[in-house]
Structures are given as structure tokens and as C-alpha cells.
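Minutes, structural biology subgroup

Action item carried over from last meeting: produce the C-alpha cell record for Phosphohistidine phosphatase (Pseudorhizobium tarimense). EB confirmed the sequence was re-checked against the source entry. Recorded below for completeness.
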Amino acid sequence: MTPSPPSRIYLLRHARSAWAQAGERDFERPLDGEGFAEAEIIAEKAADHGYRPDRVISSTAVRCRQTAEAVRRAMDEELELVFVDELYNAPVDTYLELLRANTAISSLMIVGHNPTIEEVLERLIGTDESAGVIPIGYPTAGLAVLDQPSVSDAQFWRLTDFLTV
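Output recorded by EB:
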């Protein structure tokens, strides 16, 4: 029997980040003032909808870490946060492998970067569905909620919700 990924996946793009300061690497860019507000708002919206992952896996980039921390504050201080270096500038397959590797939990949130987070959504729900949900791109602090298809041979995951600020 092949282990299956979690039955619910949350894909969260980090909130708006500041522009790099002189000498600052892209990886080190923090959220700006608007980004901190976005992170808090989307985390609160998700909590208000009853969304709570069993685990949050986040890129180690500063802006992703700050977004993940907002999720923990809004949902549960005991929420498990895992920071993974490989999510920064990662291809789609790295994100998908993380989903496949987390079989012992029922729900997982990934906090990551664009364009990869958008490509993961497209791969999981299909090109047409993705284009209908995010016609002009995956917004900062956008949160997709996906559930496993009810039919085991279905090609795509089911988009349950898409929250924005």
C-alpha cells in the first residue's frame, strides 16, 4: 500500500515583503508594514473559517518565517512549524515531494514563494481551475485550501476555498 499525502492541503504565499536594502540578500527581506498586516489578517480569516493544519512547513526565508509565525499566533501557539531551506527558489517537484512525505498527518500547510506556489496549485487542481481562481496570479498572503478528491482515481485535488486579504 502506497502512503498517501494529507487529505487537506493549505498553500499560503508569504505576505508582502519589503524591498531589499543595500547589501541585503533577497532571502533576508522581511515583511513590510502592509505585509505584517496581511499576514495577521489572512491567519485570522483562516482561523475564523476553522482552518487549522496539523503541521506548517515554511521556507526559511525571513518573509515566509514571519508569515508562518502569524499563522501560529492566530491558530495555536502549539502549532508545529517546520522550516525547510529547500523551499527557497525550489521547483514544483520539491513542494510536491514535501506533500508526499507527510503521510502521518491529515492536514498540512506550506508557506512558500511565487511563482512556485502558483505552479503547485495549478498542478494539483488543473490549469483551467487555477486560471479561474487566480487569473492575474497568486496574490501575496493568498491561501488555497485543497481537499483530496472523493474518487480515488480523480486526476485533480478539489479546491475548497481561496482566501485573500
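Discussion: The chain has one domain: 8-163.
Next step: EB to file the record with the rest of the batch.
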